[in-house]
Write a structure and sequence with these properties.
- With 264 residues, this protein is mostly helical.
- The chain is elongated.
- The N terminus is likely disordered.
- The chain is built from twelve helices and no strands.
- It is 64% helix and 0% strand.
- The longest helix is centred in the middle third of the chain and has 21 residues.
- It folds into three domains: 99 residues, Up-down Bundle (Four Helix Bundle (Hemerythrin (Met), subunit A)); 50 residues, Winged helix-like DNA-binding domain superfamily/Winged helix DNA-binding domain (Arc Repressor Mutant, subunit A, Orthogonal Bundle); 56 residues, PhyR, sigma-like (SL) domain (Butyryl-CoA Dehydrogenase, subunit A, domain 3, Up-down Bundle).
- Helix 3 packs across helix 4, helix 3 crosses helix 5 and helix 11 packs across helix 12.
- Keywords: DNA-binding, Sigma factor, Transcription, Transcription regulation.
- This is RNA polymerase sigma-B factor.
Length: 264
């Protein structure tokens, strides 16, 4: 996302508040279709850029590039300029600040979470972060959970929930090296153990096998446990290979029915 605004002659917020206000008020009073309005709009945006940058800098050092935050703040400024209505009795700064800050907060809420969490927890994290910064200055120490809960007017359980949810803000890549030998975090994760499935199958198969007659049990065992071919089974039992095939098919049908919970 890139917003281009002419900043060749940036205006200092401390010395240009009145001219900047005059520009925005003049633009707001001008009819939408007036040919001079687009140029006046660009000048108003340029005049208020220092405010947008100032608000963006308040959110720096939180893991997002400063230039990206400036762009987000400028987007908020443009929205404020386009939506400002002088007849509401609110000066532009009072309208623009919450608009720009809201845009910055939405950026952090929607773009910077590694794992999606409910919006309520995202907003709670921001509130807790703000309370922590405020209380650290006023108390001269790191605030406790009880301090933050009292400051925000919420329960300690809600503060803890917000702190737990904040863990989703940053995630560690599975490719992160954890040893000098090159072992990565993903290498330490367990995989699916087929042994559990085999053990469960054997437990289930035991009663089902007991429902077969002696010859059927022997044929199934020779085929699937000893891995003999039908011809080898036929030679060992003394019957034809075709007969072995019929008996094996019959036995497997019985097993399937028992394993599905049906009675034979």
């Amino acid at each position: 996302m890139t917003v281009t605004v002419d900043t060749a002659a940036p205006v200092d917020a401390a010395t240009s508040a009145d001219p900047a206000s005059e520009l925005i008020n003049a633009m707001a009073a001008m009819p939408a279709g007036h040919p001079s309005r687009p140029g006046l709009r660009d000048r108003a945006i340029e005049a208020w850029l220092p405010l947008a940058r100032h608000l963006a800098n308040r959110y720096a050092n939180r893991g997002e590039p400063r230039d990206d935050l400036h762009q987000v703040a400028i987007m908020g400024l443009i929205k404020a300029v386009d939506r400002f209505d002088a007849e509401r009795g609110v000066d532009f700064a009072g309208f623009a600040v919450p608009t720009i800050v809201g845009e910055l907060k939405r950026h952090f809420r929607d773009k910077t979470w590694s794992i999606r969490v409910p919006r309520r927890l995202q907003e709670l994290r921001l509130a807790i972060t703000g309370a922590n910064n405020t209380l650290s200055n006023t108390l001269g120490r790191s605030p406790t959970v009880a301090d933050i809960a009292t400051h925000l007017g919420i329960s300690e359980d809600e503060v803890i929930e917000g702190l737990e949810g904040a863990r989703a803000y940053n995630a560690t890549s599975l490719s992160t090296p954890i040893t000098e030998g090159g072992t990565e975090l993903g290498d330490t994760l367990g995989g699916e153990d087929a042994g559990y499935g085999h053990a469960e199958l054997r437990i289930t198969l035991g009663p089902a096998m007991a429902g077969l007659d002696e010859r059927e049990q022997k044929i199934v065992s020779l085929r699937f446990y000893d891995n003999l071919t039908q011809q080898q089974i036929a030679e060992q039992i003394g019957i034809s290979q075709m007969h072995v095939s019929r008996l094996l098919t019959k036995a497997l049908t019985k097993l399937r029915r028992r394993l599905d919970g049906a009675t034979v």
